[in-house]
Design a protein that fits this description.
- The chain is 55% helix and 18% strand.
- It has 13 helices and 14 strands.
- The strands form four sheets. The chain has a five-stranded mixed β-sheet.
Length: 429
Amino acid sequence: FTLLLGRNIAMSRRREFFLARNFEEALNTAVQAGRKADSVLNHTLKNTMAEAADGLDSLIEEPQWSDRQAQTLETCVASLRRGMRACRHRQAYIHMASDKYVLSLQPLRLARFVADLTAGRRMACSVSASSAVMVDPTMCGLVLDNAISNAFRHGHPEDPEVKLVVTTTEIEERVRLTFLLTNRANPSRPTVTPEYIDRVLSGESRKAGASTSAMSDQIGLQHAFLAADLHNMETSLVQVGTQVEFKALMDVAVAPDVQDSHDDLYAVDLAKFPSGVRIHAIDDSAATRELLKHNLLLRATPDVHMYGEKHAEVAQFIHGAAADADLVILDQHLEYGDPDNVLGTELIPQLLARGFAGFICMRSGNVSSDDVAMYLEAGAHCVFGKEIPLKQMIDDMKVAYVRHSQEQADTASTASSCITISKEHHPVH
């Protein structure tokens, strides 16, 4: 009997082990499938909103709108671009939650960054900092986007009086960057105290039903503080009388290649863009092709060739661009259905193999730090997210093209000088 009982216990434990392992495997499979589906949805949403925003941008420039109508359209565009940022922030948060997010410090023009964050929102802002700084724009954007949304959502219902002030203070070779966001408090909500913030960040206030809004789970505030910790930001949220203050402090480096005269230099280089540059571009979206071509013809050059309507045009793009283009623009995901899907990073080596020596620009809905590194490693010279307005993207691309061309000319001149010196010191017999 004892032996039989032992066998039954052993079999029962073995069965429990197999069930637990199968459940864990099934759960991991479900999680991975969910993440893949989420990534696909994220990509689709960003591209769809980018097309809508670019289309509205083109409409705004037409003269028939009244000031009020144009303002409404601009607000719609800002909302779409905010939605694209939310998609990017969601992907970043998923990586943060799994301890896989890696900070990517990039030169950031604070005035433009704040203008993008506050576009379409009725709030005041002041940016006294003129220099560019090295930060992770995704993490910084995640913190401030959530803080601004929180100020509007939980501020005074009649007029929250939201204001953002950005300042920098020199500290030896670095600068202290300060974001101060204020809003008028909602008198019907709990007073913001350190104890209240602790309950929100721990999730206790949601369990206790402390939120007065059916739509608020206070997750945004948790995201903001988590991102701030990852970026070594000192953050605080306090209420002084009727005013709520969110402050974020961080010590950052000044971008080494961007001087205070950046705006003037940018305008000078923008004016140097040659009028006859030949541009070839490929994208699988009909709306994107139409909008991109319209804006390139309007803002860059009369010599524009578009490809990507069908898979056969991929080969036409490679042939035409290698033979004729000075500048190419590629989408990363060219989808024609398996097995005909193509990646832009697969096309760059084909262009280079055919002797293409021009300027390569990637424009994609996926521009995480890993994505950008992959594009640059493949041979791209510059990368733009599709959330960037086409007008801004084209101007930035033109400046990048001019500076790249100048660097090539300087390199060629230096090489020529070295050859001349070499011949003088080592004459050929």
